[in-house]
Amino acid sequence: MELWPNPKGWAFSIWKVKLKILNLCIMNIFYLNTDPVIAARELCDDHIRKMQIESAQMCCTAHWEVGNEAPYRRAHTNHPSTKWTRESIQHYRWVVKHGLEVCDEFTRRYGKPHKTKEVLDWLDKNEPNIPDNGFTEPPQCMPEEFKRPNAIDGYKTYYIEDKIKIKQLKYNKLNNTPEWIRKSLLSEQA
């Protein structure tokens, strides 16, 4: 079996679909709260190690898309979360503030600074020329079964059902599992 299928074969079409699905899972904004600081603090340990990088990538891509240079190269330009980040300066600011708090939370949990903080500080001080189109909830980049009319409800459901129960991501560093996760898990045990 080939690791990468022949572009003229039928299997290539299947690979393209798999890659499109994978692309939706590569990056995300875990919109667990309207407040970007609280949303960052509610992330599990695994996400505290990487979500600031994704925030910086999305915001740097916003700069490149309006003709500016930025510390990171373009990344996932057409991903729904990246598009949402550059639709309004309010979205961009939310993502930067969220990313900065993820960096602070990383320092609290791991006792050292995250290198991406320097990039996010730059992004905070150098906003791109994006129109202020108000604030809308970010897209729900998750399997359909977890989506809800409200993005926070959708992301909380996705976090509990997929990230905590299936992937078994933890809150070991500060033993700070959010109350809404504890309540959900306890109600199932009862």
Short synopsis of the structure:
By secondary structure, the chain is mainly α.
Strand content: under 5%
Helical run tally: 9
Molecular shape: globular
The gyration radius over C-alpha positions equals 18 Å
Considering DSSP H and I runs of 4 or more, what fraction of the residues is helical? 55-70%
Reported for the largest beta sheet, the result is:
none
Tally of individual domains: 1
Please state the structural category: mainly alpha
End-to-end separation in angstroms reads 48 Å
- Catalogue the unreliable spans: 1-6, 10-24
Number of strands: 0
Please provide the ordered H/E string of secondary-structure elements.
HHHHHHHHH
Mean pLDDT: 88
Describe this structure in words.
The chain has 190 residues and is mainly α. It has one domain. It contains 9 helices and no strands. The protein has helices at 10-26, 36-41, 45-48, 51-65, 80-87, 89-110, 116-125, 151-166, 179-189. Helix 4 crosses helix 5, helix 4 packs antiparallel against helix 6 (89-110) and helix 5 packs across helix 6. The longest helix has 22 residues, at 89-110. The N and C termini lie far apart (48 Å). 31% of the residues are buried. Mean pLDDT is 88; it is low at 1-6 and 10-24.
